[in-house]
Design a protein that fits this description.
- By secondary structure, the protein is of the alpha/beta class.
- It is globular and about 50 Å long.
- The chain starts with 6 loop residues before the first strand and ends in a 5-residue tail after the last helix.
């Protein structure tokens, strides 16, 4: 119904404090410089003039930017809804500042309820699962009860096929949605963001039937009221 973008993904940085197996953004966008806050304010004004409704602040890790609250305010003050996408390693101080700036829509990466699996997926960073769970608790604590939204970003991949249903159950239990996306594999000659260079993570032919069965179960969960 519109002739301009409703939803825009804005990569505000390629920096990240994790090297997740399913993501290549720190490599694919490493030669792209970050916009300054002055440039972002101009972008926000242009988005508002165009009629953009939602902007996803992603990266890399958005909380790697110290001026994230200013970035959030640049869009929210112009009537553009901000969603933040994070790996969950932000401090409580950073979380509060982002919320106070108007960031009331958050997506935290969570691919498993098993710490060892999550830490491996995150690139072998020990305690990264525990830190993400802490951030989930902090956002739950500080987000306003009204007019806020929270979701778990879960990537469907060979390493966590047996974990997806539990993530959805956990999210629903704490009133968080789960956003499920399949893993994508990219090539070094044509790198694309949010994809892995690791071809071992591509689903094998014999794994596809298991994926199909899981997707049917997940659709049934959604139809029965799980937040997905």
């Amino acid at each position: 119904t519109k002739n301009s973008p409703i939803y825009v993904q804005f990569y505000i940085t390629a920096r990240c404090n994790l090297t997740c197996e399913q993501c290549n953004i720190i490599y694919a966008n490493s030669d792209v410089r970050e916009c300054s806050i002055t440039e972002i304010e101009k972008i926000a004004k242009n988005f508002a003039d165009m009629g953009v409704a939602i902007v996803l602040l992603t990266g890399g890790e958005p909380f790697a930017r110290k001026d994230l609250p200013e970035i959030i305010y640049a869009f929210e003050s112009r009537g553009i809804h901000v969603r933040m996408q994070t790996n969950g390693l932000a401090s409580e101080k950073q979380i509060i500042a982002a919320i106070e700036a108007g960031g009331r829509d958050i997506s935290i990466s969570l691919d498993s309820l098993r710490p060892s699996i999550q830490d491996k997926i995150n690139g072998g960073f020990q305690m990264s699962w525990h830190k993400a769970m802490r951030s989930i608790a902090l956002f739950t604590k500080h987000l306003p009860k009204e007019n806020s939204f929270a979701s778990l970003g879960c990537v469907l991949q060979p390493n966590n096929l047996g974990d997806i249903e539990d993530v959805i159950r956990f999210g629903t239990k704490i009133n968080w949605h789960t956003s499920l996306v399949p893993i994508h594999v990219s090539d070094h000659t044509k790198p694309r963001g949010f994809r892995t260079f690791d071809t071992r993570l591509r689903f094998k032919k014999e794994e596809i039937p298991h994926v199909d069965i899981l997707l049917k179960k997940i659709k049934m969960m959604r139809d029965s009221g799980y937040l997905l």
